[in-house]
Write a structure and sequence with these properties.
Blueprint (H helix, E strand, L loop, with lengths): L1 E11 L3 E2 L13 E12 L7 E9 L6 E5 L3 E2 L5 E8 L18 E2 L7 E9 L7 E11 L3
Antiparallel strand pairs: 1-10, 2-9, 3-7, 3-10, 4-5, 4-6, 4-9, 5-8
Length: 144
C-alpha cells in the first residue's frame, strides 16, 4: 500500500486543477483498489458557498474523466472527512463523454489511466468563500 497526498492542505478561494500527479514513468503496476479522502478543516459560513472536488484520470494525459467525485461540501457544513473507495473491475466497453466530471458522490470502477489530477470547483455565493482542504489517496497495487 502507498499513501499519497494529491492536494496539500491549504485555504483556497478559487477553482483550480492540479498538475498531473502520477505519470506512466512512475507507474509500477495497475491500482487495484484505493481509498480517496477529502479532509476539510475550515469552511465558508454561507450555504450558498460550495466546494466540489473531483479526482480525474487519463490514459494519455490529455483526455480526462472523473474517477472519484466527492459529495458537494456547503459552506455551512461541519469540518470533517469524506472517504470514497475505488475497486478495480474489468470493463470491456464503456461510453463516456470526454472530460466528464461525473455526478457528485460517485466513483468510476473500471481500469484507470496512469495519470491522475484533482480538480476543485468553488462557487462563491456569499462573495467571500474560503475552504481549507486536502486530498489523499491510499492505493493497493498488485504485481501481475
Amino acid at each position: 500500500m502507498s499513501l499519497a497526498t494529491l492536494v496539500a492542505s491549504a485555504a483556497r478561494t478559487t477553482s483550480s486543477t492540479t498538475a498531473v500527479l502520477l505519470s506512466k514513468a512512475l507507474d509500477q503496476a495497475p491500482i487495484d483498489s484505493a481509498v480517496f479522502q477529502l479532509s476539510v478543516s475550515a469552511l465558508a459560513s454561507n450555504a450558498t458557498d460550495t466546494l466540489d472536488v473531483i479526482v480525474q484520470h487519463s490514459i494519455d494525459g490529455s483526455n480526462w474523466d472523473a474517477l472519484c467525485h466527492f459529495p458537494q461540501v456547503k459552506g455551512n457544513d461541519a469540518a470533517g472527512q469524506i472517504r470514497m473507495q475505488y475497486v478495480r473491475r474489468e470493463v470491456t466497453i464503456e461510453s463516456r463523454s470526454l472530460d466528464s466530471i461525473g455526478a457528485a458522490g460517485t466513483v468510476y470502477h473500471g481500469p484507470i489511466g496512469a495519470n491522475l489530477r484533482v480538480e476543485h470547483v468553488i462557487a462563491n455565493g456569499s462573495g467571500s468563500a474560503s475552504f481549507t482542504f486536502a486530498v489523499t489517496m491510499e492505493a493497493v497495487r498488485k504485481l501481475r
